Amino acid sequence: METLTKDIQNNITPSEAIERLKIGNKRYVSGSMLNRNYSEQVKITAGGQAPYAVVLGCIDSRAPIELIFDQGVGDIFGTRVAGNIINEDVLGSLEYSCKAAGSKLVVVLGHTKCGAVTSACNNVELGNITALLAKIKPAVNAIGGEMTPDNIETIAIKNVELSLERIRKESSILNEMEQSGEIKIVGASYSVENGEVTFL
Fold first, then answer.
1. CA distance 121 to 82
2. CATH classification at residue 82
3. How far is residue 170's CA from residue 173's CA, in Å, rounded to a whole number?
4. Interacting residues of 29 by C-beta distance below 8 A, sequence separation 6+
5. Is 167 domain-assigned?
6. C-alpha R_g of the chain
Protein backbone atom coordinates (compact mmCIF):
# COMPACT_ATOMS: atom_id res chain seq x y z
CA MET A 1 0.00 0.00 0.00
CA GLU A 2 1.37 3.38 -1.01
CA THR A 3 2.36 5.94 1.59
CA LEU A 4 0.98 9.33 0.66
CA THR A 5 3.32 11.89 -0.85
CA LYS A 6 2.61 15.49 -1.81
CA ASP A 7 2.32 14.48 -5.47
CA ILE A 8 -0.26 11.80 -4.70
CA GLN A 9 -2.17 14.18 -2.39
CA ASN A 10 -2.23 16.90 -5.07
CA ASN A 11 -3.79 14.50 -7.59
CA ILE A 12 -6.58 13.28 -5.30
CA THR A 13 -9.90 15.06 -5.87
CA PRO A 14 -12.38 15.69 -3.05
CA SER A 15 -14.70 13.05 -4.55
CA GLU A 16 -11.86 10.53 -4.75
CA ALA A 17 -11.05 11.27 -1.11
CA ILE A 18 -14.59 10.28 -0.12
CA GLU A 19 -14.31 7.11 -2.20
CA ARG A 20 -11.03 6.17 -0.49
CA LEU A 21 -12.70 6.41 2.90
CA LYS A 22 -15.74 4.42 1.74
CA ILE A 23 -13.58 1.64 0.33
CA GLY A 24 -11.48 1.59 3.50
CA ASN A 25 -14.57 1.27 5.65
CA LYS A 26 -15.80 -1.63 3.51
CA ARG A 27 -12.48 -3.40 4.11
CA TYR A 28 -12.84 -2.75 7.85
CA VAL A 29 -16.40 -4.11 7.99
CA SER A 30 -15.52 -7.21 5.97
CA GLY A 31 -12.39 -7.93 8.01
CA SER A 32 -10.11 -7.57 4.97
CA MET A 33 -7.99 -4.67 6.17
CA LEU A 34 -4.75 -4.01 4.33
CA ASN A 35 -1.55 -5.51 5.67
CA ARG A 36 0.63 -2.48 6.37
CA ASN A 37 4.23 -2.12 7.49
CA TYR A 38 3.64 0.64 10.04
CA SER A 39 7.29 0.96 11.04
CA GLU A 40 8.15 1.54 7.37
CA GLN A 41 5.39 4.14 7.08
CA VAL A 42 6.75 5.89 10.17
CA LYS A 43 10.16 6.18 8.48
CA ILE A 44 8.71 7.38 5.17
CA THR A 45 6.53 10.05 6.78
CA ALA A 46 9.17 11.28 9.25
CA GLY A 47 10.21 14.05 6.87
CA GLY A 48 6.69 15.34 6.18
CA GLN A 49 3.04 14.45 5.76
CA ALA A 50 0.42 14.76 3.03
CA PRO A 51 -2.93 13.48 4.38
CA TYR A 52 -5.79 13.60 1.89
CA ALA A 53 -8.61 14.11 4.42
CA VAL A 54 -9.37 15.34 7.93
CA VAL A 55 -12.00 13.61 10.04
CA LEU A 56 -13.63 15.30 13.03
CA GLY A 57 -14.90 12.49 15.19
CA CYS A 58 -16.04 11.83 18.73
CA ILE A 59 -13.66 10.59 21.45
CA ASP A 60 -15.68 7.36 21.77
CA SER A 61 -13.28 4.43 22.16
CA ARG A 62 -15.41 2.32 19.80
CA ALA A 63 -14.90 4.71 16.88
CA PRO A 64 -11.14 4.97 16.23
CA ILE A 65 -10.90 7.05 13.07
CA GLU A 66 -7.90 5.48 11.33
CA LEU A 67 -9.09 1.94 12.03
CA ILE A 68 -12.69 2.27 10.86
CA PHE A 69 -11.50 3.75 7.55
CA ASP A 70 -8.54 1.32 7.32
CA GLN A 71 -5.98 4.07 6.88
CA GLY A 72 -2.24 4.00 7.48
CA VAL A 73 0.29 6.37 9.02
CA GLY A 74 0.15 9.72 7.25
CA ASP A 75 -3.12 9.10 5.37
CA ILE A 76 -5.63 11.24 7.29
CA PHE A 77 -5.76 13.87 9.99
CA GLY A 78 -7.84 12.96 13.04
CA THR A 79 -9.52 15.53 15.26
CA ARG A 80 -11.51 14.10 18.16
CA VAL A 81 -13.68 15.77 20.77
CA ALA A 82 -16.72 14.48 22.65
CA GLY A 83 -19.83 14.90 20.52
CA ASN A 84 -17.79 15.94 17.44
CA ILE A 85 -18.62 19.55 18.31
CA ILE A 86 -17.23 22.72 16.75
CA ASN A 87 -15.18 25.30 18.60
CA GLU A 88 -12.37 27.69 17.71
CA ASP A 89 -9.64 25.11 18.27
CA VAL A 90 -11.38 22.50 16.14
CA LEU A 91 -11.91 25.01 13.34
CA GLY A 92 -8.25 25.97 13.49
CA SER A 93 -7.29 22.30 13.24
CA LEU A 94 -9.55 21.79 10.21
CA GLU A 95 -8.23 24.93 8.54
CA TYR A 96 -4.64 23.82 9.10
CA SER A 97 -5.43 20.40 7.62
CA CYS A 98 -6.84 21.83 4.41
CA LYS A 99 -5.30 25.25 3.82
CA ALA A 100 -1.80 24.61 5.17
CA ALA A 101 -1.38 20.86 4.70
CA GLY A 102 -3.43 20.25 1.55
CA SER A 103 -6.21 17.87 2.63
CA LYS A 104 -9.09 17.65 0.13
CA LEU A 105 -11.91 16.57 2.41
CA VAL A 106 -13.46 17.45 5.77
CA VAL A 107 -15.64 14.77 7.34
CA VAL A 108 -17.72 15.37 10.47
CA LEU A 109 -18.25 11.86 11.83
CA GLY A 110 -20.97 11.21 14.38
CA HIS A 111 -21.86 7.77 15.68
CA THR A 112 -24.67 5.72 17.16
CA LYS A 113 -25.03 5.32 20.92
CA CYS A 114 -23.15 8.60 21.48
CA GLY A 115 -22.67 9.26 25.18
CA ALA A 116 -22.19 13.00 24.69
CA VAL A 117 -25.41 13.36 22.70
CA THR A 118 -27.28 11.19 25.22
CA SER A 119 -25.93 13.32 28.07
CA ALA A 120 -27.03 16.51 26.32
CA CYS A 121 -30.49 15.01 25.84
CA ASN A 122 -30.62 14.17 29.55
CA ASN A 123 -29.44 17.64 30.64
CA VAL A 124 -26.33 16.35 32.38
CA GLU A 125 -24.34 19.04 34.21
CA LEU A 126 -20.85 18.25 35.49
CA GLY A 127 -17.78 20.48 35.54
CA ASN A 128 -16.47 21.47 32.11
CA ILE A 129 -18.69 18.82 30.53
CA THR A 130 -21.60 21.25 30.97
CA ALA A 131 -20.11 23.79 28.55
CA LEU A 132 -19.29 21.07 26.02
CA LEU A 133 -22.81 19.63 26.10
CA ALA A 134 -24.23 23.13 25.58
CA LYS A 135 -22.78 22.96 22.05
CA ILE A 136 -24.95 19.88 21.37
CA LYS A 137 -28.12 21.49 22.77
CA PRO A 138 -29.08 23.20 19.47
CA ALA A 139 -29.51 19.73 17.93
CA VAL A 140 -31.57 18.59 20.92
CA ASN A 141 -33.78 21.66 20.64
CA ALA A 142 -34.14 21.32 16.86
CA ILE A 143 -35.52 17.79 17.13
CA GLY A 144 -37.31 18.02 20.48
CA GLY A 145 -39.87 15.47 21.58
CA GLU A 146 -39.47 12.59 23.99
CA MET A 147 -35.89 11.37 24.46
CA THR A 148 -36.41 7.84 23.15
CA PRO A 149 -33.42 5.84 21.83
CA ASP A 150 -34.58 6.47 18.23
CA ASN A 151 -35.00 10.17 18.87
CA ILE A 152 -31.53 10.40 20.40
CA GLU A 153 -30.08 8.83 17.22
CA THR A 154 -31.95 11.44 15.15
CA ILE A 155 -30.44 14.15 17.34
CA ALA A 156 -26.96 12.69 16.80
CA ILE A 157 -27.42 13.09 13.03
CA LYS A 158 -28.79 16.61 13.51
CA ASN A 159 -25.72 17.40 15.60
CA VAL A 160 -23.49 16.41 12.67
CA GLU A 161 -25.55 18.60 10.32
CA LEU A 162 -25.31 21.59 12.64
CA SER A 163 -21.54 21.08 12.96
CA LEU A 164 -21.31 21.22 9.16
CA GLU A 165 -23.31 24.46 9.19
CA ARG A 166 -21.02 25.96 11.80
CA ILE A 167 -17.90 25.05 9.82
CA ARG A 168 -19.24 26.82 6.74
CA LYS A 169 -20.47 29.82 8.72
CA GLU A 170 -17.55 30.30 11.09
CA SER A 171 -14.61 29.42 8.81
CA SER A 172 -14.36 31.70 5.81
CA ILE A 173 -11.22 29.78 4.79
CA LEU A 174 -12.99 26.41 4.55
CA ASN A 175 -16.16 27.90 3.08
CA GLU A 176 -14.20 29.58 0.28
CA MET A 177 -12.21 26.40 -0.38
CA GLU A 178 -15.45 24.43 -0.67
CA GLN A 179 -17.04 27.02 -2.93
CA SER A 180 -14.03 26.93 -5.25
CA GLY A 181 -14.09 23.11 -5.40
CA GLU A 182 -10.74 22.66 -3.63
CA ILE A 183 -12.36 20.62 -0.85
CA LYS A 184 -15.62 18.98 0.13
CA ILE A 185 -17.20 19.23 3.59
CA VAL A 186 -19.43 16.26 4.38
CA GLY A 187 -21.13 14.50 7.26
CA ALA A 188 -21.19 10.82 8.15
CA SER A 189 -22.33 8.48 10.90
CA TYR A 190 -20.56 5.42 12.27
CA SER A 191 -22.50 2.45 13.61
CA VAL A 192 -20.96 1.02 16.77
CA GLU A 193 -23.18 -2.01 16.18
CA ASN A 194 -21.83 -3.14 12.80
CA GLY A 195 -18.85 -0.91 11.99
CA GLU A 196 -20.40 0.71 8.92
CA VAL A 197 -19.99 4.38 8.06
CA THR A 198 -22.92 6.01 6.27
CA PHE A 199 -22.21 9.27 4.49
CA LEU A 200 -25.06 11.78 4.81
1. 14
2. 3.40.1050.10
3. 9
4. 194, 195, 196
5. yes
6. 17
Residues of the chain with pLDDT > 90, as a percent, come to 90
Look at residue 187 in the predicted model and tell me its pLDDT: 98
Full-model pTM: 0.95
DSSP string, 37-82: -HHHHHHHHTT----SEEEEE---TT--HHHHTT--TTTEEEEE-G
Number of domains comprising the chain: 1
Residue 82 falls inside a structural domain:
yes
Triad 77, 140, 67: Cα angle to 5°: 25
Closest by Cα among 49, 100, 48 to 71: 49
- Residue 174, classified by CB atoms within 10 Å of its CB into exposed (0-12), middle (13-18) or buried (19+), is buried
What is the domain extent for residue 37? 6-199
CA 184 – CA 22 distance, rounded (Å) = 15
pLDDT band at 1 (very low <50, low <70, confident <90, very high): low
Helices 172-179 and 88-95 sit at what angle, rounded to 10 degrees?
Answer: 40
CB 4 within 8 A of CB 74: yes
Question: What tens digit of pLDDT does each residue of 156-175 get?
Answer: 999 999 999 999 999 999 99
Q: Which helix (H) or strand (E) holds 108?
A: strand 105-111
